[in-house]
Write a structure and sequence with these properties.
The protein contains six helices and three strands; from the N terminus they run E-E-H-H-H-E-H-H-H. By secondary structure, it is mainly α. The protein has one domain. It has a three-stranded antiparallel β-sheet with strand order 1-2-3.
Length: 147
């Protein structure tokens, strides 16, 4: 579903529950990476973040699971949000994942741990409390840019 504003810019609206579901899966993946110190969990998560960052979070594998399994079982009105803040959050997640991968590959275990823990904290905030840290940063940057 799209909406056209007066400034002729097209914005895409997505089901606001989808990114939260994706954040729950991301939380599990990142917790597993942190617990096992396994870089392959982060590589997989980085691929998911890359899809979300480039195409939008509605195109990630987690969104596919949400749309096919979870969403059909939900009742009531569908809350929507603009795609840009969650897409920015995916970019931030990708940045953290890349830093974690670089840390793991170069033997800097502390960098790996800090990057994964940071991404895990943000994903957990979204999954548990519906607080998207990346989305809030996007909105703050948007406000600062408009001044």
């Amino acid at each position: 579903m799209t909406q056209v504003s007066n400034s002729a810019k097209v914005s895409t609206l997505i089901d606001a529950r989808g990114p939260r579901f994706g954040a729950a899966i991301t939380t599990v993946v990142l917790a597993a990476a942190l617990a096992t110190n396994n870089v392959w969990f982060i590589v997989v998560q980085a691929l998911v973040f890359a899809i979300g960052a480039l195409k939008g979070p509605q195109f990630t594998p987690y969104a596919f699971i949400y749309k096919t399994i979870v969403k059909p079982r939900l009742k009531g009105e569908v809350p929507v949000e603009e795609v840009k803040p969650p897409q920015f959050a995916q970019r931030v997640g990708l940045l953290f994942a890349v830093v974690a991968i670089v840390g793991a590959v170069t033997g800097l275990d502390l960098v790996f741990t800090i990057a994964v823990a940071g991404a895990l904290g943000a994903a957990f905030l979204n999954a548990a409390f519906n607080f998207c840290l990346g989305c809030e940063i996007y909105l703050l940057l948007l406000r600062a840019r408009s001044k």
